[in-house]
């Protein structure tokens, strides 16, 4: 007998892959996934999870022309291929057609079409609703809450009771709605016996488990239905989440019992799953980016110019001691070649004396000679990516080419192929985490597009959402060993006379002897600032923070969505803008974008103008404008960075000046790291407490953070991140080595969890232990953006809701990621938070005493996870706490406002 086959109907939950993993490992089954709105069935065209990942049903693209009957027939034919169906959890309400889609058809199958079904959460609620029950709101939603599930341990002699022989266990709940079969009409005296009997309202449903939830003092407990079975049909369902990391293993027995019952039912009915015929569902694990590319016809005969550059690299490097007292910015300044672009990934809190922080970076990574680097840029919605290079072999070339993208892999496919061609083989020893490779940023909006959210036609700009440079010259500071590595990747087939390594090493050695000014004098007065902008603007900045009342109202709106079952947790954010005179010489030379043209864009523009009391600029800014024109002036973005790293030393600090974007970041949060053997690790952070006299020690912070509200917030993201990793690593390849750990940072304590995954080995065994492939870290990155800690769960619906609440304002670099993907296959990405960024083309003209003056606009995003237990005041305060770090470099503390 072959492995059993299970069909999972995916309602777009962020826990789906955890369920398919559990079913695969526990039952030894092959699990296939069909979205509830599968376009191949024409139910809801355009809502498919993965572009072009269509399970091979190419002859079915015209599904929208199918009649209702034909679609149903096609679904029923598909069901014949499986031993059982699992209807998954998800956002929304089972009584809303679009939220459950295909699941509804399952309960209406004719007797000769029946097959065993297991509903989880939304799937369970749909089962209850289809059999006379009502689905109503809980008195208060329970998300990420762990409760003991009450059932009759002996099974009570009920046939098909999948809880028989299972000890009491704890399980995680993620729901706002619940099944109402009339339980509230039963008096206290009868409850004990009546709760296990079908109710008058739902005579076909046998209750199998309950949770009785203590509510407010004096209130009766809330009777929450946790599991049912159908009296005669092979339908079962549970309200809790069997797949959550906090559900006890004992709960697995329920799944095992269900499957035994399912197989028994199939045997008794003589039902055997068909092994041939058409298959609509896809495998539970995503195909790798590279494998999708290999299916394509080979490239054109003549390679393009960029296909020849930097391929077959070998690593050359030199090590010099890190001179005492030399800081990362000193090194950057010493080797600066006057290039307008700069990328520094800075373990700013590496120095032992810099803080008591738990998490320190070990390495800082500096990209050098970026004008000689190939750049890959992509703007969401474009059918192409751009590859460009400014200079080659010391001469300016300004080559640029638009590369059409394949629908299957999109920009990720291009990046994977680009990387593969330039991969450093495992045989090359790497003494540093990065020997060269991609460095750059990815925006939040790229992540939205990756999860199938359409940004619409009205983006008023053409800024890159993916901006990565292929760095071949780099400087690595090893803060632990106190050494600097100067490294260069040289294309294998090119003879080179490049002496960059030697020259750079000489400059670094010279640092030893040169007298150094402190890289930033903390006591220096920061540029003055006024919140109303009435002071001489050339000297001041004006800031526009979120309005307290508006923010609190948005928190309440989030909670309304959560109470309605649309989301379990929403990471609400807002942006503070800081406008100030243009400070960087390269910005002054950069042409701004032309004026937006469509009426909608004009409206956006006017809104922005009125906010800033100025006018958009549509021409290059003259370099004679007010402020200093030196990149090292006290107000340049680089000096902002130096100030921030001093005030807020963070393990994932970074400075990026790449294309039209500038980022100054003090991020404490790792998003994703992976090594060349395909071990991936993510570190979602949820639960923040500000350091104060009352909360000064780890023990005090633990007391505040180890409470149900904070733990639930974290747990939800942990399960979400497990789902993201399972989707690429596959069943049984994800673990949680550190759960709900409180760590100390410069000005806050944060609760984090470590989630690890292992990419599948190369099927043909090529390349030895060290290589992964065809999966690489890029597959994981592509499958897990935007970072779950910045969205909430379930990710897709939550992001859609947040876009509405946040007024369709783009988050841009904030909530995206910054990091690298080394040519060896290693990678490390941080979540872009506690940071400020700006776009060159976002400028306003401010009227000053001396006439109009052009200002640049910096943005600081800040926010936090809203749950049903949040208070508007608490969330507002958390947002201001996070805003405080970056804003303080302008001399302001929002916590004192
Ligand atoms: C939203 C932010 O931070 C995120 C939200 C956190 C929380 O809700 O506790 C913690 C870290 C980040 O993942 C931010 O810094 O702006
Ligand atoms: N996890 C779920 O499936 C949740 C179901 C439903 N949206 C609720 O909130 O109750």
TrEMBL record:
Q: Which GO terms describe its molecular function?
A: 4-amino-4-deoxychorismate synthase activity
Describe the location of the Chorismate-utilising enzyme C-terminal domain by residue ranges: 628-882
**Keyword Transferase, does the record have it?**
yes
SUPFAM superfamilies the UniProt entry points to: ADC synthase (SSF56322), Class I glutamine amidotransferase-like (SSF52317)
**Keywords per UniProt:** Folate biosynthesis, Glutamine amidotransferase, Transferase
In short, the EC number is 2.6.1.85
Cite the Glutamine amidotransferase domain residue spans from the record: 8-258
Report any one BP term from Gene Ontology.
L-tryptophan biosynthetic process
Name of the protein: aminodeoxychorismate synthase
Top-level taxonomy: Eukaryota, Fungi, Dikarya, Ascomycota, Pezizomycotina
- Bias kind Basic and acidic residues: ranges: 48-67
- One Pfam match: Chorismate_bind
Q: Which domain of life is it from?
A: Eukaryota
Q: Which Gene3D superfamilies does the entry link to?
A: 3.40.50.880, Anthranilate synthase (3.60.120.10)
Q: In which pathway does it act?
A: Cofactor biosynthesis; tetrahydrofolate biosynthesis; 4-aminobenzoate from chorismate: step 1/2
- Spell out the Polar residues composition-biased ranges: 528-541
């Amino acid at each position: 007998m072959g492995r059993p086959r299970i069909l999972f109907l995916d309602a777009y939950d962020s826990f789906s892959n955890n369920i398919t993993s559990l079913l695969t490992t526990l039952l030894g089954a092959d699990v296939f996934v069909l979205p509830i709105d599968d376009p191949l069935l024409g139910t809801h065209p355009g809502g498919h999870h993965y572009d072009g990942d269509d399970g091979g049903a190419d002859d079915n693209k015209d599904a929208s022309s199918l009649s209702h009957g034909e679609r149903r027939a096609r679904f029923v034919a598909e069901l014949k291929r499986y031993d059982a169906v699992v209807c998954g959890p998800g956002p929304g309400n089972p009584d809303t057609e679009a939220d459950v889609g295909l699941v509804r058809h399952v309960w209406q199958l004719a007797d000769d079409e029946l097959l065993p079904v297991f509903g989880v959460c939304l799937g369970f609620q749909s089962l209850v609703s289809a059999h006379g029950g009502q689905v109503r709101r809980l008195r208060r939603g329970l998300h990420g809450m762990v409760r003991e599930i009450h059932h009759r341990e002996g099974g009570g002699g009920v046939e098909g009771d999948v809880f028989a022989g299972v000890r009491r266990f704890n399980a995680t709940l993620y729901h706002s709605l619940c099944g109402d079969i009339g339980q509230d009409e039963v008096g206290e005296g009868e409850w004990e016996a009546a709760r296990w009997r079908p109710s008058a309202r739902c005579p076909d449903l046998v209750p199998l488990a309950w949770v009785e939830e203590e509510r407010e003092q004096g209130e009766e407990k809330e009777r929450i239905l946790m599991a049912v079975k159908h009296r005669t049909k092979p339908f079962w369902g549970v309200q809790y989440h069997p797949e959550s990391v906090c559900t006890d293993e004992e709960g697995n027995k329920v799944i095992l019992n269900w499957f035994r019952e399912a197989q028994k039912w199939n045997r008794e009915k003589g039902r055997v799953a068909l092994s041939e015929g058409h298959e609509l569902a896809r495998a539970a694990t995503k195909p790798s980016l590279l494998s999708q590319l290999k299916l394509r016809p080979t490239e054109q005969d003549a390679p393009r110019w960029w296909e020849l550059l930097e391929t077959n690299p070998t690593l050359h490097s030199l090590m010099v001691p890190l001179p005492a007292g030399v800081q990362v910015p000193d090194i950057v300044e010493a080797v600066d070649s006057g290039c307008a672009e700069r990328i520094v990934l800075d373990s700013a809190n590496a120095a032992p004396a810099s803080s008591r922080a738990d998490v320190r970076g070990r390495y800082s990574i500096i990209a050098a000679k970026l004008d000689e680097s190939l750049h890959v840029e992509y703007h969401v919605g474009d059918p192409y990516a751009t590859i460009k290079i400014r200079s080659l072999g010391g001469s300016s070339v300004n080559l640029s080419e638009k590369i059409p993208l394949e629908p299957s892999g999109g920009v990720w496919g291009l990046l994977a192929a680009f990387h593969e061609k330039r991969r450093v083989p495992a045989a090359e020893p790497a003494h540093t985490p990065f020997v060269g490779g991609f460095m750059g940023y990815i925006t939040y909006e790229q992540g939205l597009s990756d999860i199938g959210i359409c940004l619409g036609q009205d983006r008023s700009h053409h800024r890159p959402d993916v901006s990565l440079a292929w760095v071949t010259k780099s400087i690595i500071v090893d803060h632990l060993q106190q050494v600097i590595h100067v490294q260069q990747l040289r294309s294998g087939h090119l003879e080179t006379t490049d002496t960059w390594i030697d020259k750079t090493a000489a400059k670094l050695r010279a640092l030893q002897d040169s007298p150094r000014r402190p890289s930033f004098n903390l006591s220096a007065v920061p540029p003055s600032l006024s919140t109303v902008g009435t002071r001489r603007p050339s000297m001041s900045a004006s800031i526009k923070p979120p309005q307290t009342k508006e923010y609190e109202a948005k928190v309440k709106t989030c909670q309304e969505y959560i109470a309605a079952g649309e989301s379990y947790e929403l990471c609400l954010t807002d942006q503070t803008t800081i406008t100030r005179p243009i400070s960087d010489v390269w910005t002054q030379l950069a042409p701004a974008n032309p004026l937006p043209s469509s009426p909608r864009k004009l409206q956006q523009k006017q809104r922005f103008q009125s906010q800033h009391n100025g006018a958009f600029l549509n021409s290059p800014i003259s370099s004679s404008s007010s402020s200093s024109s030196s990149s090292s002036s006290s107000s340049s973005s680089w000096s902002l960075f130096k100030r921030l790293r001093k005030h807020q030393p963070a393990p994932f600090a970074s400075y990026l000046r790449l294309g039209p974007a500038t980022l100054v970041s003090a991020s404490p949060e790792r998003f994703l790291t992976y090594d060349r053997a395909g071990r991936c690790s993510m570190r979602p952070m949820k639960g923040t407490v500000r350091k104060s006299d009352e909360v000064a020690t780890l023990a005090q912070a633990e007391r505040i953070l180890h409470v149900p509200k904070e733990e639930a917030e974290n747990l939800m993201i942990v399960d979400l991140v497990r789902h993201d990793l399972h989707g690429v690593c596959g069943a049984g390849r994800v673990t949680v080595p550190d759960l709900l750990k409180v760590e100390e940072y410069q000005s806050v304590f944060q609760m984090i969890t470590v989630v690890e995954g292992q990419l599948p080995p190369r099927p043909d065994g090529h390349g030895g232990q060290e290589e992964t492939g065809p999966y690489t870290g890029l597959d994981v990155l592509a499958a897990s953006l935007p970072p779950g800690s910045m969205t909430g769960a379930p990710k897709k619906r939550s992001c859609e809701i947040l876009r509405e609440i946040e007024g369709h304002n783009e988050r841009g670099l904030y909530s995206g990621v910054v990091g690298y993907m080394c040519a060896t296959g290693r990678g490390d990405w941080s979540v872009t938070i506690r940071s400020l960024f700006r776009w060159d083309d976002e400028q306003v003209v401010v009227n000053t005493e001396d006439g109009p003056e052009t200002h640049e606009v910096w943005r600081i995003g800040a926010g936090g996870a809203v749950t049903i237990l949040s208070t508007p005041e608490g969330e507002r305060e958390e947002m201001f706490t996070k805003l405080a770090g970056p804003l303080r470099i302008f001399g302001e503390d929002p916590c004192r406002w």
